Amino acid sequence: xxxxxxxxxxxxxxxxxxxxxxxxxxxxxxxxxxxxxxxxxxxxxxxxxxxxxxxxxxxxxxxxxxxxxxxxxxxxxxxxxxxxxxxxx
Length: 89
What we know:
This protein is mainly α. The chain has a domain at 25-73. It is 49% helix and 4% strand. It has three helices and two strands; from the N terminus they run ααββα. The chain has helices at 9-18, 26-41, 56-73, and strands at 48-49, 52-53.
């Protein structure tokens, strides 16, 4: 998705919620990690809405798990940085 500075907290939380089942999908893990990082950087002192609250300590643990997963299963793992084509004759 590519979160930018113009995104609202609601949009970022929606991205995080859309990718909660990231295990087994490096694409979802990258999107979830991006949302977690944004939330941690832009976190207020506290947030509570409609009898719901957000615990940033649990996001720090989630960020670590996501970073480990993406490092192992990311889309660039095991790929050559360049390719060379040769015509078969």
